[in-house]
Amino acid sequence: MLELRDFSCGYGAFQAVHGLNLKLRPGAITGLLGPNGAGKSSTLMCVAGHVQQQGGAMLFEGRDISGLPATERVRLGLAISPEGRRLFKDLSVQDNLRVGGMVQPAKVFAHDRDRVLALFPRLAERLDSLAGNLSGGEQQMLAIGRALMTRPRLLMIDELSLGLMPKVIDLCYLALDTLRAEGLTVLLVEQNTERVLKVADDICVLESGRSVWQGTAAEARQDPSLTEAYLGLH
Ligand SMILES: Nc1ncnc2c1ncn2[C@@H]1O[C@H](COP(=O)(O)OP(=O)(O)OP(=O)(O)O)[C@@H](O)[C@H]1O
């Protein structure tokens, strides 16, 4: 699905991620964990085409996407719900979804929007509200919904649960289960380690821009050195 080979990325002379090798299994949820500043967001944003790749290869369904503009990556099936959500706050919910759907033919808009609304019924009640007036949870649902409107095969979500109420977090994770059952591949950055260990299939832990642990979530749950040293769990 997505393979990073000896991948590095960063900002000008600064390298945020060094020599990362990571393979995402199709249809699996991979949790990307690690402390603040480890390079998680930089990795996602670089795969999406918004941060400079500094070395290595980035293969999406076998094709090297290094150097492709972000819009082209979206057309190939890569979507991101970025950190901070970055919604168009002065546009309505409906219009934010429309922006996501712009890479698809206009005739599929209503169908795709209704799929998003079935996944997040709360958005159906707020279709005409400005995105800036939504609650944090609704904004997160809209950011994911906008990404889904592009019909991705890989969905990357940065900080799914940050600042959200537990009940809303449950709804978002329920939606992820549904999407995985439909075959979507997900790369998830999340501070809530316990949640990720429950929901993810695979785990990659970054520290100071390097991968320090990779394996299945089941292995991660049973590895005390990992849970104590890197994930702060006991
Ligand atoms: N726009 C930027 N310009 C320069 N350096 C940046 C920029 N964004 C991030 N960095 C640096 O890159 C490194 C990795 O940051 P990144 O945001 O990817 O980490 P993270 O693991 O996502 O952490 P967090 O959980 O705090 O978002 C950090 O040292 C950070 O200061």
Automatic annotation (TrEMBL):
Record has Repressor as a keyword: no
GO molecular function term, any single one: branched-chain amino acid transmembrane transporter activity
Coiled coil, from the record: none
Keyword Nucleotide-binding found: yes
Example GO BP: L-amino acid transport
Pfam families, sorted: ABC_tran
Annotated ranges, domain ABC transporter: 2-233
Alphabetized UniProt keyword annotations: Amino-acid transport, ATP-binding, Cell membrane, Membrane, Nucleotide-binding, Transport
Record-linked InterPro entries: AAA+_ATPase, ABC_transporter-like_ATP-bd, ABC_transporter-like_CS, BCAA_Transport_ATP-bd_LivF, P-loop_NTPase
Family membership noted in the UniProt record: Belongs to the ABC transporter superfamily.
UniProt protein name: ABC transporter ATP-binding protein
